[in-house]
UniProtKB/TrEMBL annotation:
It comes from the Bacteria. Residues 9-69 form the HTH tetR-type domain. This is TetR/AcrR family transcriptional regulator. It comes from Pelomonas lactea. Pfam families: TetR_N. InterPro entries: Homeodomain-like_sf, HTH_TetR, Tet_transcr_reg_TetR-rel_C_sf. Gene3D superfamilies: Homeodomain-like (1.10.10.60), Tetracycline Repressor, domain 2 (1.10.357.10).
Length: 186
């Protein structure tokens, strides 16, 4: 049965959506092509009709995850930056990386990834910094960028470390300390 162009595009989008979630949950090396394609309801045989390699999929899925982050961050920070910081550093966000921040979930993989993944990751960081920059209290553009970089680094670092130490007192301490040091931490 021949797949229409529209169905092929729909399949590709489904693969990307599933890969963005599964890579955040398990990492690039934590899931194989068979499982990625099965999650999308497809067979491995169709993979190379959509992507050149697993690295190509990793770069595109990372881009998808970080674009979703930017959209969410923009909406939430414009409503209430302190409430967003609290949500970002919550137990729920710590415990559900597949639905959460791509920066925290994929940073380690991106650091070990190829040039395409690193390029996408760098673009994602710049995009998220720009989203935060407009919310920073500094008087000038350079100061707001510096505050946004510090905020992003603090948030991602605290979330990443709190995931690494598990559910416990140290996890809470890390996130509370980060929150208290941020301009909008509350």
């Amino acid at each position: 049965m021949k797949v229409t162009r529209a169905q092929a595009e729909e399949n590709r989008e489904r693969i990307l959506d599933n890969a963005a979630q599964l890579f955040r949950e398990r990492g690039f090396d934590g899931i194989g092509l068979n499982d990625l394609m099965q999650a999308a309801g497809l067979t491995r045989g169709g993979f190379y009709g959509h992507f050149e390699s697993k690295d190509d999929l990793a770069a595109q899925a990372t881009q998808r995850a970080l674009q979703a982050n930017r959209t969410q961050w923009k909406q939430q920070t414009e409503r209430s930056l302190p409430a967003w910081v609290k949500t970002y550093l919550s137990d729920a966000h710590r415990d559900h990386p597949g639905a959460g921040c791509g920066l925290a979930a994929l940073a380690g993989d991106a650091a070990r990834g190829g040039a395409a993944v690193k390029g996408v990751f760098a673009e994602g960081v710049e995009s998220l910094v720009a989203t935060l920059q407009g919310q920073m209290p500094a008087a000038d553009e350079g100061g707001r960028r510096e505050q946004a970089l510090a905020m992003l680094s603090t948030l991602v670092g605290a979330l990443l470390l709190s995931r690494a130490v598990g559910d416990g007192a140290l996890s809470r301490e890390l996130r509370e300390a980060a929150r208290s040091q941020l301009p909008a931490g509350g």
